[in-house]
Amino acid sequence: MVFERQRKQLLALMFLGTVLMLLLTIFVLNLDMFALSIFLFVPWFFLFRFYQHRSDIFKSGFKPIVVSSILEFMDSSLTYYHKDFISKDTFLRSGIFPINPELYYGEDYIMGKIGEIFFEMCELELYHTNKVKGKLDKWFEGIFFHANFNTTFKGRIVMIPRSEWQFFIPIMKEYTKYGGYELKNTGNAVFDKEFIIYLDRDIHYREILTPELITAINQYHINSGKKVYASFYNSHFYMAINEPQNLLEASVLHSNLNFELIAAYYRELTLFTQIVKDFDITH
Length: 283
What we know:
By secondary structure, the protein is α+β, with helices and mostly antiparallel strands.
């Protein structure tokens, strides 16, 4: 509500400034002085940049306060850093995407522990050169999650949306080259219809691919309609959720007093923390 008052004040300032500039423009044009009128773009330009700067300040201040409030409600031990993100080395170790992104951006880093399990998450934006088009393509935009389950499990597992299998052929080939294979039956027919799983040979995957984990991932995918990717590398678990819209992005032109705006972010935080809790309980 505090930010809503600030938003209205900013809109009022924008409206007043625009009206004054219109009056100035009309006055100068009525003077019928061409040499003077061509300089009108200067105050318009500075007015635009001023509004842009004030809007950026408003937007950048909104998310940190809202996220911090959500985390305080969920678990006060969780830590939030607005401008930080998960390291690129951690992302590459996940082995989910068949690229080493040339441009790697992130923000909204959250870290914490549930029981003895450490986890971290952030928003990421990845770009990589398309070999056919010869230009940078956006490969992924969304939330990336990492947790260390501290198990004795050794090996690799990757799960990808079945609808995107053609983009992940290099990953599949990497697994099968050393004897890995596709897991055809997880015991959840709905999950098997939506996802493809590849894993290393001779690994005991059932202690990792628990029914609770499979159900949580599949239920979130069905309810949200978002693309979900995940992998295990030894005791580390990684998950990526495609989110093309910036979560909790504040609007200047429209009210941000919208419960769904906050609930969408809360649901994704709940998914990750619930996965960690389930694994902590079952192990």
